[in-house]
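Task: complex structure prediction.
Instruction: return structure tokens for all chains below.
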Amino acid sequence: MPNPYLTLVDSWKDLPAGVGWSEPHPDDGGMEIYAPLDIAGVTVGNFALRATCFEHNPDKAVMFQLETGIPGERRRQPLTRIDWNPLSNFHKNPPDGPQRIRRIITGSHHHPLEANWLEREGRMRMSNLPVAEALNPNPANFAELLDLVGKLFRINNIGTIPEPEWSLKLVF
Amino acid sequence: MANIAVRDSSFEAAIENAVRQLVSVRHWGSAAYINLPIYYPSGTAVAVKVEPSRSGFRVSDGSLAYREIEQIGGERGFANNARILASEIGAITDKRSIYLDCDPEGLAGAIADIAEASARIAHKIAARVVGKGDAEIADHLYERLKLVFGTMRVERCVKIQGPSTKEWEVDALVNLDGQTAVFQAVPNHHVKVYSTAAMFHDLAVKERPPVTISVVHDKTEMGAYFGILSQAGNVIEEGQSDNAYEKAASWNAI
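Output:
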């Protein structure tokens, strides 16, 4: 069965104007972006770019995800994701994943749509994009990360996303 | 003859390298992140965050369980589930994380408890959220059954009561001459396997039990779950022939 999400991921997309990070959450300093996306001038319903990071973790734990909503449900279907310098150093791939992908990978990684699509069953793998491959080379800074996200997610104006206003936390 | 283990430097190096891929500690600013070989549904390893606190140490999950379930739209379930699991280990929750304060002697236990609880929260919520995706698999099964048995014989999402008095919802019911067959699409996930087995065992003790059939993607991928399902009813693979579907609906060994 053809992958119905392929068009969303493979088409070149545009962010609306004014996309920026939310204020840090009072509990954990988490900051988020949730932005709709245009394809050929049409804002596609229930389709969005999500990004997260933490105020007190500069250049770490940045996540970008393309996702689509499920009509009539609150849950989301992640389509592809990049985890840059995650707080968790390891990712374990499922045993039935593509053979070219190592079981345990370290550091930054990309969850590609194709590797998480089960062709014979005509559906996404369950459990939140469980197949990932290491980013090599790893982006050296936020600007390089944006470049990579723009290429892999095909977002023309990804550069309009500002760098998060990170701050170092003072203890005691 | 006794086996003499030959240990050389490459043997030990390989093991140490493997362990380094499973457990690690990294120090960033005032916090340390300890990776343990316990995994969230996405495959991300749990990384427990340890910071200094007035009583010694604060051990938290660094909001990783929250972030994990947020990616699939399950964040609304965090507060309740985290509170319940936190109470089992004497931990505290806020809106996005679970944590414990401890002294140096309690540090190892706190790290283990928070790691396990954080993963359990994420798995519990993900199972509920992803379970809704089973509907897509059931759709596929329904279409196949209509082709095999004819539209008039197949009913979708039917509620059946077992002798336990519990009302079960089955993916599809096929009405054959004088017999009914229950088809259930079962992904390779423990929640669906156990619930299907429980349902089939209950239906098997009805006065006129239906034939029960689990439809799986690949029997060999199911591992021990295959045994659990086969004890409860017939099992076929979704890609098998029409003839296999017909036979599965007519053979009742229970």
